[in-house]
Design a protein that fits this description.
Layout lengths: L2 E10 L2 E11 L4 E5 L6 H8 L7 E6 L2 E2 L5 H11 E4 L11 H11 L7 H11 L15 H15 L3 E5 L7 H16 L3 E5 L3 H5 L3 E4 L5 E2 L1
Parallel strand pairs: 3-8, 3-9, 6-7, 7-8
Antiparallel strand pairs: 1-2, 1-4, 4-5, 9-10
Helix pairs in contact: 3-5, 4-5
Bound molecules: adenosine-5'-triphosphate.
Length: 217
């Protein structure tokens, strides 16, 4: 799916966080949102994922202006098209790793064929093989981050919004996550990543520098 932001601005608590940002995120190309700490990468990612409203400008998804979506239409978009790996990971500590991977897809009643096999694969792909029965609360920060990624991969959404996916990872896991996201993108998904990580940025086919309102390809 094609996501286009056209001149979007956001003010939070009286301060301008995003000022006239425009970018295009295409299917099959991983887009990096880059900028200094506090420049608004997370805010922009949240706007593109319809988690935060914009004050000016518009966001088009496959040509539809989603800035005017009702709450119900936004929920449909999240349910049918989007997966998120955000900074708080949204993990239920009192539940098992396996439950956390499958819960989003289960809650929405999405039919996932061969889901046991798929659960196994999505855990293997993030290095959490054989960890499905553990309590999620017992995982480290980096493992929770990979669990959140397993959940997004399991859902197999058209668009993946990922906030700092390599922030708490060592070099080996960082490389694994970058390859995983590149592979997911190559399978015809739209992947948008907020990141500071030079290796992650190097793996992206488009880079949007916050504040410059242009993307390099
Ligand atoms: N809910 C909020 N209330 C007040 N200020 C906010 C809020 N959310 C974001 N901001 C401010 O907006 C600016 C951009 O924040 P954002 O988290 O988008 O930046 P970032 O580029 O992702 O930063 P980092 O790289 O440090 O994660 C910051 O100055 C931040 O303090």
């Amino acid at each position: 799916m094609l996501i286009e932001a056209q001149g979007i601005s956001v003010a939070i608590g009286g301060g301008i966080v995003l000022d006239d940002e425009s970018l295009r995120c295409k299917t099959g190309i991983m887009t990096a949102l880059v900028g200094a700490s506090g420049s608004g990468k997370t805010t922009l990612l949240h706007c593109l994922g319809l988690l935060l409203p914009v004050d000016k400008g518009s966001i088009l998804i496959d040509g539809n202006d989603v800035t005017r979506y009702s709450a119900a239409a936004r929920r449909r978009f999240w349910r049918d098209h989007a997966a998120f790996v955000l900074q708080d990971y949204g993990i239920m500590d009192e539940e098992s790793v396996a439950f956390n991977v499958t819960m989003q897809a289960s809650f929405i009643g999405k039919r996932v064929s061969g889901n046991k096999e798929r659960l196994k694969q999505s855990l293997e792909q993030t290095g959490l093989k054989n960890r499905g029965n553990e309590l999620a609360g017992h995982l480290s920060g980096g493992e929770k981050q990979r669990l959140a990624l397993s959940r997004a991969i399991y859902k197999d959404a058209n668009i993946l919004f990922v906030d700092e996916p390599t922030a708490s990872l060592d070099a080996t896991n960082r490389r694994m996550v970058i390859e995983l996201l590149a592979d997911f993108t190559a399978r015809g998904r739209t992947v948008i990543v907020s990141t500071h990580d030079s290796e992650m940025i190097a793996a992206c086919g488009a880079i949007h520098q916050i504040g410059s309102s242009n993307s390099s390809h």
